[in-house]
Design goal:
Length: about 700
């Protein structure tokens, strides 16, 4: 008995202790929840909530003709919160009701799983109460908009549990089109081109939002707090999609044909300095050949990288000599059959011409290295600084100032520097011992085409904010005159002579328009290997039409070692001509046609028909006439020319035959049948004759034969 009491006492004591502990725990829970709840919730929020930056939508880059060159598009990651209150209420009746239809829609939208597989995925997620189940990554905006209309999803985030997180990616709709110039904003990579130059305009200002971090470190937006980002501005470039495509295709064809290393082609609007196209192509050594041909891509901006220009530089030499009155175009020079020894070295003409003594203009047209070197030596040998100063005045030793990051400065040595030697001057005269960019060459040639006015090349036309222009860039004149008008006229004659009598004679033979330009062929070093590999750089610079320049273009192509074809007229020249042909046909000639259309038309005209129709036509084409009768049911004729117009009315009567001459068949038939007559028709066109003469009496049912012309 005593043992039983001892056991019960211990049981009761344990029970009382358990009850006391439970009461303490319950009291503490109530105290924490009721009196300390706000404190602990804020502590939880501080540990699991963060202010997150929201990137602004990056601005779009447009071509001058309104095409998108680089733009941002949204992509979405879709998650499902299977513990959402809306899915769980009433034992999940809403989820089960929409499961089949939702699975069907998802399968047809994404086409990566069957309807049954989606049903299993969703059911499993619901069963495990996954708070942030990844359903799909990187869906497009179109798919996202369709998804929002699906069963369950359309009920909203709280009801469906569907959560979308967005991000933007940068897309170039034309892919590698002018890629090095436009650039591309990429993650973990340096921006290039216009994307880099105008990054501050394009990127806008970031916003902020409050997010909550849940399991797995995933952040979920909190709706209570968000500062909207300020989207970036759009920029409109000077590039023209059509001209860019023409330039790239023409360059690519020649690169493939000659298996060249790399090349560029630039087109500038002569009067303004706008860059309309800039193509840069380099051989892709790591790419597999396509259909047995080398693959080229925009891998580097060769247009703003300096190299020895070769004979296109001779234009600067001629300008200096003419401006300083060292020569005239009739000054004679001995070409010595294409060779000249000076200070222990020999100058060679690249092409055999078989000429001995020619004048300065002919030496330029023949692209004689000997001729230009001799004239430069005779003119500046005692004072080479004068020649270098002229080059400086032409801005050939400075950056063009184009609005794109990465332009490299030209290299022109000065007398007295460690790079200057006894033979630097004569070699500079024909484009060696000097390095300038193709863009520099283009800017200089454009100045000559523009009657001496040097324009700064530029790529940005305007800045827009939500479609409104907030900034407009105007053409900028760097120099009003790079030389005298007299010298400019002489240079025009020289450049046109190259295309008529010189090295580009065959290239532009029978051309429908006049071209002024210069060929160039330069032997370039192959790194540390020197000149033994015989690598030539072919170039052509010029403008068209020569009598009223609209576009200036330069083409520079570096050929492969020991290339069979390497002269400028044979490699770069055809690229220039293809570009100029297309632009002349599409833009220049069309503009000329438009100018002629506006001239008054003096040709004779004659219109006959119902009076109301004649009046309508006359008003539309603005032909003056006088109408003193308001009866529009009559027949009228309008004839003459713009200087003198005659308006005649023809009375209609049901008893007398009117004149049908000049009427169309429809009007004639309507008129005769309206008088009760039967009509027989011969021929096609307008009425030329009628079997019943005008003025004769007619009766209903009478037959009339109408002959058309």
């Amino acid at each position: 008995m005593e043992v039983k009491k001892d056991i019960l006492w211990r049981v009761y004591l344990s029970y009382i202790l358990i009850v006391v502990v439970c009461l303490v725990i319950f009291s503490k829970a109530v105290y924490i929840q009721q009196f300390q709840g706000t404190y602990w919730r804020s502590m939880s929020d501080s540990l699991h909530q963060r202010i997150q930056e929201v990137e602004a939508e990056r601005g779009t880059i447009y071509s001058e003709d309104g095409k998108m060159l680089s733009t941002s598009i949204p992509q979405f990651d879709i998650y499902v919160d299977f513990a959402a209150d809306g899915l769980r209420e009433k034992s999940g009746v809403l989820f089960r009701k929409n499961l089949d239809s939702l699975s069907y829609c998802l399968a047809h939208l994404f086409q990566d799983n069957t309807e049954g597989e989606y049903r299993k995925l969703l059911a499993h997620g619901y069963k495990t109460k996954d708070r942030y189940y990844l359903l799909k990554r990187n869906i497009s905006y179109r798919q996202y908009e369709e998804l929002r209309k699906f069963p369950l999803v359309r009920l909203g985030r709280n009801k469906s549990g569907f959560v979308a997180t967005s991000k933007t990616i940068r897309l170039n709709p034309y892919k590698l089109f002018a890629y090095r110039t436009i650039g591309l904003d990429r993650e973990n990579a340096q921006k290039i081109g216009l994307e880099q130059t105008y990054d501050t305009l394009l990127k806008g200002s970031s916003g902020k939002r409050l997010v909550r971090y849940i399991a797995g470190g995933v952040s979920v937006p909190v709706d209570d707090y968000q500062i909207e980002p300020e989207n970036g501005k759009d920029i409109v470039t000077t590039l023209d999609v059509f001209i860019q495509e023409v330039a790239e295709n023409a360059l690519l064809k020649m690169m493939i044909k000659n298996e060249a290393e790399h090349g560029c082609a630039i087109v500038m609007e002569t009067k303004t300095g706008k860059i309309k196209a800039i193509a840069n192509l380099g051989k892709c050594d790591s790419c597999e050949k396509r259909d047995g041909q080398l693959v080229y891509r925009e891998d580097f901006n060769y247009a703003i990288s300096p190299s020895e220009p070769g004979s296109t530089f001779k234009l600067a030499t001629m300008m200096s000599l003419l401006e300083d009155k060292k020569i005239t175009l009739e000054s004679m020079v001995d070409l010595s059959d294409g060779t000249w020894n000076i200070n222990g070295q020999t100058v060679y003409d690249s092409e055999k011409h078989g000429r001995m003594t020619v004048n300065a203009r002919q030496a330029f047209e023949l692209s004689s290295n000997v001729g230009l070197a001799k004239m430069a030596w005779q003119g500046y040998g005692r004072n080479p600084s004068l020649f270098v100063r002229r080059l400086h005045e032409m801005k050939l030793d400075t950056l063009t100032g184009i609005d794109i990051t990465g332009e490299r400065k030209p290299i022109i040595h000065r007398p007295g520097s460690k790079y200057w030697s006894a033979n630097t001057l004569p070699w500079m005269a024909f484009g060696y011992n000097v390095e300038i960019t193709p863009l520099q060459t283009l800017t200089y040639y454009n100045s000559v085409a523009n009657n001496g006015r040097m324009m700064r090349p530029y790529l940005l036309n305007s800045v827009k904010d939500q479609g409104d222009v907030i900034s407009q860039r105007e053409p900028f004149t760097v120099m009003e005159k790079i030389c005298s008008d007299e010298t400019i006229k002489l240079l025009h004659a020289c450049l046109e002579g190259v295309c008529v009598e010189g090295t580009a004679k065959e290239l532009f033979k029978n051309c429908a328009y006049k071209v002024a330009g210069k060929t160039g062929t330069a032997l370039v070093a192959n790194g540390n290997k020197g000149y033994d590999d015989k690598i030539y750089q072919s170039s052509f610079a010029g403008y068209f039409p020569a009598d009223n320049p609209q576009y200036t273009c330069v083409v520079v192509i570096k050929n492969k070692p020991h290339a069979v074809v390497f002269y400028g007229a044979a490699v770069a020249g055809p690229v220039f001509k293809e570009i100029s042909d297309r632009l002349y046909t599409t833009y220049v000639r069309q503009n000329n046609f438009a100018e002629t259309v506006v001239k008054p038309d003096s040709s004779f005209f004659s219109y006959v028909g119902l009076k109301q129709d004649i009046k309508q036509v006359a008003n539309m084409v603005k032909i003056p006439f006088t109408d003193n009768n308001n009866n529009d049911e009559e027949i009228a004729s309008l004839s003459g020319n713009r200087n003198k117009t005659t308006f005649n009315e023809r009375m209609i009567s049901n008893t007398y035959m009117p004149s049908l001459r000049g009427l169309g068949l429809k009007d004639a038939v309507v008129l005769c049948e309206g008088m009760g007559m039967k009509v027989k028709v011969r021929g096609r066109g307008k009425v030329n004759n009628q079997s019943i003469a005008a003025g004769e009496s007619v009766a209903r049912g009478q037959l009339i034969t109408v002959e058309l012309n």
